């Protein structure tokens, strides 16, 4: 075997190995992103009730402006602050984002419910809703649906994965 053939063969093997390593790293990155989105969906659901309470407590007149925090005299605390404009802007933006996020989650939940109804299989959606919207426990759900705890967790995982796709679009799809 000539030296040039040997070099060519070694180069070809190294190239194939480099492509394999690159593809593995790419796959790991995609799976990590999907896992992060699923994790974020679970965090949104876990905190959904608190978000809803926060949004419901914001006065309708100020929902696009500033959340009203009342003090004992009945005045708006924001009106009493004459300094820290950056802090007030930050509060305004946080409130707007929270409102938008809750509305977005509500629309995604409505869509998920519609999808399950179209499949004539609303059990997983109802389990998800009872857990995160109504605040029921796993043991309550298991008893209510005559299932074991593990089956409830599987139903929640399945419904959460579908919700993740609705929240994050194509980036929420689990690559297998």
Report what the structure shows.
This protein is mainly α. The chain has 7 helices and no strands. Helix 4 packs antiparallel against helix 5, helix 4 packs across helix 7 (149-168) and helix 6 crosses helix 7 (149-168). The longest helix has 44 residues, at 3-46. The two termini are 42 Å apart. The model is unreliable at 61-78 (pLDDT under 50).
List the helices and strands and how they pair.
Blueprint: H1 3-46, H2 48-57, H3 77-80, H4 85-118, H5 123-132, H6 138-145, H7 149-168
What structural keywords apply?
single chain; elongated
- What sequence of helices (H) and strands (E) makes up the elements? HHHHHHH
- What would the principal axes of the Cα set say about the shape? elongated
Estimate percent helicity.
over 70%
Which percent band covers the strand fraction?
Answer: under 5%
Mean pLDDT metric: 79
Q: Which radius of gyration do the C-alpha atoms yield? A: 25 Å
Structural class: mainly alpha
Please provide the count of β strands.
0
- N-to-C CA distance: 42 Å
Low-confidence stretches: 61-78
How many helical stretches? 7
Biggest sheet overview: none
